[in-house]
Sequence to fold (641 residues):
Amino acid sequence: MTAYVLRRLFQMALALLGVSIIVFSLIHLVPGDPVRVALGTRFDPDVHAALTKRAGLDRPILVQYFSWLGDAVRGDLGVSFRSGQPVADLLFERLPATITLAVAALFVALLVSVPLGILSAVRSGSKLDYGATAASQVAVSVPDFWAGIMYILLFSLSLRWLPPSGYVSFSDDPVEWLKHLTLPALTIGLISGSILFRFIRSAVLEALHQPYTRTARAKGLTERQVIWSHVMPNAWIPIVTVVGLQLGFLLSGVIVVEVIFAWPGLGRLALLSVQDRDFTVLQGAVLLIAFVFLSVNLIVDLLYGYLDPRVRQK
Amino acid sequence: MSDPVLSVNELTVSFGTRRGRAKVVNNFSYDVGEAETLAIVGESGSGKSVSSLALLQLLPTPPARVEGRALFRGADLISMTKSEIRGVRGNRVAMIFQDPMTSLNPVRTIGFQLMEPLKIHMGMSDTAARARAIELLDTVGIPSPGGRVDDYPHQFSGGMRQRVMIAMGISCSPDLLIADEATTALDVTTQAQILDEIRRLQEEMGLAVIWITHDLGVVAGIADRVVVLYGGSMMEESVIDQIFDERRHPYTRALLESVPVSGGDRPHRLKAIQGLPPDPTRLPPGCPFAPRCRHAVERCSNDAPRLRAPAEGHRVACHLDPADFHD
Fold:
């Protein structure tokens, strides 16, 4: 097991290295001079040259890459071109908001999808099944920005129940924190939940039709025992994969929703850094997102071993 | 024969399909006595598995509709409530399925799966059930059962898994064991071992067995009586010694002729039965086998033959007298 984890960590490091190369080269291939953007209307050729030299942008690209990589390994992701703040600080400032939103959205998603998915599969062909399947179809098809705007119109502007945007940290005011969190979490959670619902429904349905489920019934177990002792332990395996993928996406920052709700997360930071040509921040953000995604995947794979004895053995 | 353990009467199973109702089992009646082995023989789609699943209410209804009666020790299995039939399943009537690779739950230990019926039907504690599970594994010939009880199905071979299924089936000392193609997926050597095992348990426990198969070789080795199903209807019933006789239903004869014989004088082609089994949504009005029968006369395709008993221990559904057949 330890050997497996070590091997996976090594693979993860390789993947991150690959990500860093792609990010670095893409940013430097894209036209747009960050120094020029930073100077804006106060452009002066001498200042431009001096700043370029100070940022090390006059060096060959390979030298730039390795110096950046060397710093990054030690946790130093450089400074923002725009604000001059360390990139690592900027990222970690944004991380709590992103994690909060991701976890809240996943909570909403699971709350809706797990019970409905199981129920729809167990009573497949019922009105409940058709209703839930149709609703999930609608929820998946509606774009997130539109849903977000509709929620704001309804819950904030018409009903005045919830604030339309912004973020309050939990330590400052738990009630306001929850109020601000609700709409963005609902927007992403319902979409994510619809995707999960379909996977859960089909995973449970598949397990329900396996011969071992018939064996369990033939033993005289109640339908409840059949589902919880035999169907679900098998169905969880594919479900965990999809939940892990969803969590990975949510943690990578949901750009559109963060922008609509003025949510100070990683996604919005990444978008702003693209607009500002603030490439040090963008590099750092992409690297962090990749790291988070890969970590969630690793956790999912370890969970596999816990859920599936056939995997544990290998 | 003393009072039968199971007496099936006019069992009819149909399924609602887009092309109308499919009658998969038609007025099927038979008895199984104490310590007796009844073989139900037929090709794929003859209704043999469906008829046995219907006994334990294991068919989803709808789309299935089950009619008729199946008196098990005097109580009708078909009309039992859900909780009544649960008390019978795995307890008084146990079932073993065809594919040992998929019939055991891959994420549960062998022990867990063996202990379940012991706990629910016999009210055993975890410790008692575990001890009994190890005993049962030993009974069905699993070496060092104490060490294997916590293993998972994938750590067992196909034959071993089928032994586990048998152990599970006999765990609550049932009165009746239904084995649905229980040895079909196994190689011949393992098959012989499993058959021996069942026979031994049958002698020890006085178990009645319904053995569902398409393999006449297995039938010859294990059964006391044979029922031949075709298109959901019983074609013939006979004690085992007579089934291989001359005077048989044309379908039974065709079935026997299509079995490969080893060690014949000269190589000969297998006699396959011409045509295909009938479509259960469009069963012919007469004998279901008539379209494929070499001896069919006009009457056969209009008028379904009823079962008649030309001799003791023999029932046959055919208008013709087998003595008239000349091939």
